[in-house]
Amino acid sequence: MLEHASGIIGLPLRLLAREVYDRVTARVGEAAVALVTGEEKRVPAHPRYWVCTVEAMPANQSGDLIAVDEIQLASHPERGHVFTDRILHARGARETLLLGADTVRPLLQRLVPSAAIEGQPRFSTLSGAGTLALGALPPRTAVVAFSAARVFELGERLRARRGGAAIVLGALSPRARNAQVALYQAGEVDYLVATDAIGMGLNMDIDCVAFADVQKFDGRRLRALENAELAQIAGRAGRHRRDGRFATLAPLPPLGASTVRAIEQHRFPSEERLYWRDHDLDFGSLAALAASLRRPPPASWLAAAHTAEDQQALDKLARRDEIAARADRTERVELLWQICQVPDYRQLQLDDHTRLQAALFEHLTGSRARIPADWIARHVAPLENTDGDIETLLARMAGIRTWTYVTHQTGWVDDPAHWQERTRAAEDRLSDALHARLVQRFVDAAARRRTARRKRATEDTAGAEGAGAGARGAAPPSFAALLRAHVGATVMSGGGAANARDVPGDGDGDTGASDGWVDDLVDAGHGRFRLDPDGHIHADGERLARLGRGVDLLHPEVTIVAARPLGAGARLRLGRRLLAWSRDLVSHLLAPLHAGSGAQAEPLSPAARGIVYQLEQGLGTIEAAAAAAQLRELGSEDRAALRKRGVRVGRHVVFVPALLGADAIAARVALCNAQLGARRGIAAPRPGAASLATEEDVPPAIYASVGYPAYGERAIRADLVDGIAARLSGGARAGDIASRLGCRVGAVTSVREALAARGEPGRGAPGAADRDRRYG
To answer: What's the pLDDT band for 552 if we cut at 50, 70, 90?
Structure first.
């Protein structure tokens, strides 16, 4: 998706959508990415990329690429019709990707005959390991069960026998799930106990998957898992080219030989049918809507989705006389259908959830056509209580999710921002309390510290063996190295060493509750953070991190330097948030350069695009001599287009005046100092300063990137360079120039010589070799 200028990706789970959103924002910043799930919406002013659950993919948005993941779920009785609809109708302007298991290939070829189907084989080997006793489970094992009660039982047994485990349930909020996964990923516990919520692409370092159960209740009956379902979960073991294993947990007997062979060879029967519902529903009346929902599928291998929860809800509501009387016109029938799609996160009996839906419809078709604030408050207030055990907190979180969904619907409530913030804050507090209870109940504190010390000793030994004697005294891995190890190198820009430990320190809290302040920052808006000229990121008066040398000025690394003790899991979450913030910082800084580049803007020529690219790399300023070839090719239309983008092309300097303000200069200084790394940095100029003294150990390109190109002993503000050059060539007195630049008279000679030596674009400009020497 990121290879395109815009895109939308639909994912099967909100937890997976949040994981992908975190990965994308770590690359391009939060200002460019929208997150939309049933109950979570983060939509910046001008997103280029949309990360959504499949149900929440926006129908009114387009993108160069549209992708739908796990399309084999089109065979799911409840959700399948949504996936089938996306397969049939979701199309990107340039590319469409439909991703899923090979079992759906034959039916996909029928649905989309023009699709080019490519296989992507697994890189690592997955092998069966029979049955393993709880005490014999190797570290980095995920134990899988299919009910919360069973997960909790296994978590308590692992705490007693092996020191503890992280817990992952589909009912967890993204915040609580991320905290639990980070606990496991950072090595603070060696085991994970989860439901099949981990089966759909949640990426973790798992070496072995142990099935504690091979049956699950699917909402209608208790049934054995099919081989393809077992393989989906077992496939979490291993990663890229690292092999994985799967087993059953004693006393469960081993999987049958044919099942093991099918999983190892990844061979399963093809899907025989997909679920379908008509794309064009008729809202003319309740009877018309019901008839359109019952339209027969156009092919025998497509099944009608009559068991979907929204259709069942409509059938029940339509039988109520008071509802039928109110649904008397098209817009009200459509509203009722929207209310039928309010999810039952609480997993109540259908009648109980239908009563809530009926009340919503009555309020929205009443005299005010809004849900009363006091009525919402009566329902929300009891759910904000963070007291109670894990089961109680999970129930309240499910209730809050319902109200988060309701308050995100357009036109349903007055002051939606207030209610969305209130429900989000309630979910955050419940998430923090839940994470603390989970750690307290399922992680032995002493064992956690032993695990951390063992991990540290193992990594230190491995580092010494790998690097030899030269490793002694070297800085430990940066946050970037830690994140690359856990979530893939594509998330991070490259970079050098830093001095933040990537394992828990001795000060780690026993329960994880002390890390709750980190989660507040993880979900904080961009304005909560501040960058000083030395490259330190602050929030609420506290220094959190430092920018470090990355692959280029636009992609600095982030090293956590917070004074408070942090567990490795909390360090991962905070580091990822601040990395995304640093990408937003660069995007906001360079926004003036792209202000005139909307869809209506005229396309730039290759030469003009080259200049814009160089300006991006130079944070808004380049010397004209460095772009001499492109400048010679510019026509009048190109120059006009660049002016619309706020670019000024001078004789000596090409720059963006909007990036010479005090705040922009301060951000540029911080980014440049981060790139200098261990070398001496430069001080931020005072606001409005005409020039700076240059230092021999600072490359000239750094001064240009700050907005003050270097000429001899002085670095001159970009908008003054041409004027200074003209006055010097016109015979101005050195004293007048020195007064203008705020420097000693003797420095003016070096400025004059440097300007003369570089010439002007197309008029004796230095050659490439000279420029290469000057820019290092």
So the answer is: confident
Task: Tell me the C-alpha distance between 665 and 31, whole Å.
Answer: 21
Structure tokens given for 240: 């890229």
The three-state DSSP-derived secondary structure of 203-232 is: CCCECEEEECCCEEECCCCEEECCHHHHHH
Both tokens assigned to 765: 């400009």
SS (H, E, C) 273-336: CEEECCCCCCCCCHHHHHHHHCCCCCCCCEEECCCCHHHHHHHHHHCCHHHHHHCCCHHHHHHH
User: Across 86-204, where does the E strand assignment appear?
Assistant: 95-98, 126-132, 141-144, 166-168, 191-194
The count of other CB atoms within 10 Å of the CB of residue 270 is 12
Which of the two residues, 444 and 360, has the higher pLDDT score?
Answer: 360
* Whether pLDDT at 479 is above 90: no
What is the homologous superfamily of the domain 126-265 according to CATH? P-loop containing nucleotide triphosphate hydrolases (3.40.50.300)
pLDDT tens-place string over residues 384-443 = 999 999 999 999 999 999 999 999 898 999 999 899 999 988 998 999 899 989 988 998
HSE-CB at 676 with a 13 A cutoff on CA atoms is 25
Confidence at residue 335, expressed as pLDDT on a 0 to 100 scale: 96
Residue 526 pLDDT grade (very low, low, confident, very high; cuts 50, 70, 90): confident
Amino acid at site 346: R
**Helix residue spans in 501-552 (DSSP H):** 516-522
List all residues 6 or more positions away from 112 whose beta carbon is below 8 Å from its beta carbon: 87, 88, 98
DSSP 235-262: TTBSBTTB-EEEEEETTSPPPPHHHHHH
Given the structure tokens 């197309």, which residue do they identify? 762
Q: How many Å apart are CA 570 and CA 557, to the nearest integer?
A: 18
- Residue 400 in contact with residue 423, Cβ under 8 Å? yes
329 vs 205, more confident: 329
CA distance 582 to 547: 8
Would the pLDDT of 503 be above 70?
no
Q: Check residue 269 and report its DSSP letter.
A: P
Is the confidence at residue 600, as pLDDT, over 90?
Answer: no
Bridge partners for 329 per DSSP: none
**Calpha distance 694→708 (Å, rounded):** 10
Q: Count, in order, helices (H) and strands (E) of the chain.
A: 28, 26
d(CA 52, CA 60): 14
The tokens for 94 are 């340039």
Closest to 155 (Cα-Cα) out of 195, 185, 182, 128: 195
Among candidate residues 106, 142, 103, the one with its CA nearest the CA of residue 226:
103
Provide mean pLDDT across the span 752-759.
82
Q: Which residues contact 601 (CB under 8 A, 6 or more apart)?
A: 641, 644
pLDDT digits (tens, 9 = 90+) for 76-123: 988 999 999 999 999 999 999 999 999 999 999 999 998 999 988 777
66 and 112 Cβ atoms separated by less than 8 Å = no
Mean pLDDT of the chain: 83
How far is residue 36's CA from residue 51's CA, in Å, rounded to a whole number?
A: 6
Same fold, 7-111 and 126-265: yes
Check whether domain 7-111 has CATH 3.40.50.300, yes or no: yes
Would you list the domain boundaries of the chain? 7-111, 126-265, 445-591, 603-775
Q: Which DSSP symbol is given to 131? A: E
Q: Reply yes or no on whether the pLDDT at 288 is more than 70.
A: yes
CA distance 53 to 40: 10
Task: Kindly tell me if the per-residue pLDDT of 261 is higher than 50.
Answer: yes
pLDDT band at 343 (very low <50, low <70, confident <90, very high): confident
Q: Please give the Cα distance from 234 to 128 (Å, whole number).
A: 9
Measured distance CA(630)–CA(624) in Å, rounded:
9
Distance of CA 449 to the CA centre of its chain: 30
Tabulate helix, strand, coil % of the chain (nearest 5).
50, 15, 35
Q: What type of residue sits at position 635? A: G
